[in-house]
């Protein structure tokens, strides 16, 4: 299966990039399924029900969230009605929604999508993501009921992300990080067959501070003083992520390649 | 000028990669100068005087350090005798050594090298890096006494790194991050002419947890219990960094491209 | 001199406690001067100009602030017009106002009041407080132009607070911590004559979570989910702080005793 | 029942204080049981089997630990042989030992002792302490099989500690914090009958930086440079903690009072 995974959609620029280019990109890459991280789709803070619908209608088969999952309060109710949205397994004891879901491609092949939050350098504490992932991956072993499985590991620290990759190695088709809003250049297939990249990057304007218009973040870093709210930068988004190619029989990764499309970053499109 | 900058050299694998391949890589890329981050060269913790000399003899014109600058105590005295080593400007009130230096290429062209530590998500507090960089860059404006200038911004958070890039935009030839040990795929020339990449990545074995042999880090993440010390992974190192091409007259960047050489990561060598 | 120092005034309950009882408390303790930390006087977040005036009119001779100094935006302008308000020395590069001030008692004796922010476990990074305090205390040595000096060390970690106490020992009349909103029971005179207590505590309702009505904080800790904003608890405030007695000639502390007045905590009033 | 709880025993000074004075203090306070936090008894880092035995022989009926529980490796095996030692419920997935225990006084009355680690500002991540405490307290309701129950909440942030107190209010006889090494002056009985104090303080030398000899901590704070290891201060220890008086029938607290004995802090002994 060919799975396109795109990182955190950032505000209007990110939404526009998805709306105008995701279908084209899927075609160009011959992607069977597309999974998109939507945790910053609405003004950089969470994702409204309306914006989630827009992303799903634009060609995403599944949306993941992150630490900003419920910044937009209407997601609290909407997520229970929309099985294609996944919030972190370890978001909170009493979070609505689900931490994993299964979506199918046009030929009926199944992809498990799950997400966990790291514990290192995050804005609030979360319970252990490793045992949470362990339970989900045990229930869906490679070569079983699903043809492939994708873990979105939403975390800051590269140490924790690489550890999560090795922890899932041989048990998931791919582990791809999100949250830092910068794509990493370390795509590889781990020793037991799991595709890995530390961060997918964001779908947003890279002339910015992690997608936010740069004036106010710079003011705060330089002067220590706050003046205005943060608002997303409005330049053309680079869609950033990975294309994972899996073996339907074993559930292992055959390939994992960086994808960069549009905006300021140098374009990279794996061969279709 | 063509400047090769390589990220954190990690233990024996990293040192061997530099010793065996840096000279070849310089040749292949027609690099005029090579700067190497050495903060993890000795067992992953700091850099001994002996290892610093090895790296300099292997083709590095200048070494930068980081938060681990003085983990090896003999560096405290050695750094004052070796002007080609730079520690962070804001390491401590009373640190030995220097936070910036000037090195010359074979044709006598001068490169300013400086380094600052970020304040976000670091293991201990450091003073404001922005005002520290400001003072150094003011003293060496582009188009002045030095033909180029390179800032190693040693930090964890992508937000602070992107802010540092914009803060130096038009004032330094390039700002390249280090410390996360994972290369980023966001190389770009910022609007006012500064080359930028969030992280150079490490020179180390990428079948690891940020360069450390993965067994013990995985144990700690999974079980919460410590058993052994960390030790660097010993597989072949990928040398990771960037090639920056600058205009000698303006000091601005003409190009910035990712470099990956050897080891597990897909090789990338910009055209010479 | 007899100096009363009270910790963080928390919302309406704290303001009411000051308005109704500070004058009485000053009389009972025969305090020559009263200094009050006002960083949470307005809804728990900063201090408006109006609330600052109320506290000053109620018997405070000087107000200190903290990390919440400018949460209420009118303080940005007001602080430059009101010399009796002190913000942290190391709040930011470009903060308005002053980090130290001198106030006089009815007999013309002078008290230096200054404040610094800790760096450990704070919500954002601040520059080194030790060198900032060093400069102020050097300019006002004990036994010099001021009869006494008071350092409000606004910090979370007990290690940093005790270190600040020893750093100032013999150089300030007293170092008293604020910020945790819980009074500590470690009042002592350090070996070289500086009165010390790790935290003054808050002037607020102690049937709460650090002064906030407890329902929402408990929800967040227990469920991980946010529902409402925080709002200060409204029960009767305990006024919490210390009474410092100094020798006018040497500037050293002769005594330092805990003060607790009203509300839920057991009352403690040092002998007058 | 009259329960004496003493905070973190710090190195040799703390051990000596316990060995020489705990029995006397128990007698003076007519304590039926004594519980002592031992996480720093051995050089400030953990507690050896030998030191644990010393504390138990000196009059402690039960020892609690903390984040330093297994810094001394022989505790890993010893804790499984000594039922009077409690490590935090949420220390790690695979920690040896137990997170709660029951000890009996001379008249056969039973006290449940349990401990949990906070998540805020700690050196590494721990799972949710609230649900862990919930399970233990549900199994031992007040007025049931045990006459009293004591929660040692080992945490840094006053917000999390006060939240833990309210969370257990009416369900435990007392919640007392440890870890900051400074006693707090906020002893109170919460609305539903639970005795509470944010921190017991340490049993150690208070002319120090949280019990460590002050030279090296001061050097690190002032200069940013490390030279030596930390070692505990050796002056006479203040034994610091609380005396909780409970109703054997209801399991609720009737009284909670601060205890300070010896050393630099002002002595406080509740009436027996
Ligand atoms: Fe995120
Ligand atoms: Fe994000
Ligand atoms: Fe490093
Ligand atoms: Fe580093
Ligand atoms: Fe504060
Ligand atoms: Fe406060
Ligand atoms: Fe401790
Ligand atoms: Fe502790």
From TrEMBL, chains A, B, C, D:
Fe cation 1 binds at residues 8, 39-40, 181. Transmembrane segments: none annotated. It comes from the Bacteria. Fe cation 2 binds at residues 39, 67, 154, 179. SUPFAM superfamilies: Metallo-dependent phosphatases. The keyword Ribosomal protein does not apply. GO terms for molecular function: 2',3'-cyclic-nucleotide 3'-phosphodiesterase activity; metal ion binding. The active site is at residue 68. The keyword Metal-binding applies. Gene3D superfamilies: 3.60.21.10. Residues 2-188 form the Capsule synthesis protein CapA domain. It holds the Pfam family YmdB. This is TIGR00282 family metallophosphoesterase. Keywords: Metal-binding.
């Amino acid at each position: 299966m060919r799975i396109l995974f795109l990182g955190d959609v950032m505000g209007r620029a990110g939404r526009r990039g998805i709306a105008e280019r995701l279908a084209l990109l899927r075609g160009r890459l011959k992607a069977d399924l597309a999974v998109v991280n939507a945790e910053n789709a609405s003004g950089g803070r969470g994702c409204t029900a309306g914006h989630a619908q827009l992303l799903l209608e634009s060609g995403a088969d599944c949306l993941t969230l992150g630490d900003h999952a419920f910044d937009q309060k209407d997601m609290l109710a909407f997520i229970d009605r929309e099985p294609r949205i996944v919030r972190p397994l370890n978001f909170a004891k009493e979070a609505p929604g689900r931490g994993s879901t299964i979506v199918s491609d046009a030929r009926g092949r199944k992809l498990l999508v799950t997400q966990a939050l790291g514990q290192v350098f995050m804005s609030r504490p979360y319970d252990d993501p490793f045992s949470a992932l362990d339970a989900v991956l045990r229930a869906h072993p490679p070569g079983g009921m699903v043809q492939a499985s994708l873990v979105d590991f939403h975390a800051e620290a590269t140490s924790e992300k690489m550890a999560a990759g090795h922890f899932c190695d041989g048990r998931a088709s791919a582990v791809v990080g999100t949250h830092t809003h910068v794509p990493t250049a370390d795509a590889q297939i781990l020793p037991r067959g799991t595709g890995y990249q530390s961060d997918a990057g964001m779908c947003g304007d890279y002339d910015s501070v992690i997608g936010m218009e740069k004036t106010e973040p710079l003011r705060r870093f330089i002067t220590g003083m706050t003046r205005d709210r943060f608002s997303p930068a409005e330049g053309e988004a680079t869609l950033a992520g990975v294309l994972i190619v899996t073996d339907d029989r074993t559930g292992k990764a055959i390939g994992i390649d960086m994808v960069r499309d549009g905006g300021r970053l140098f374009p990279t499109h794996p061969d279709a």
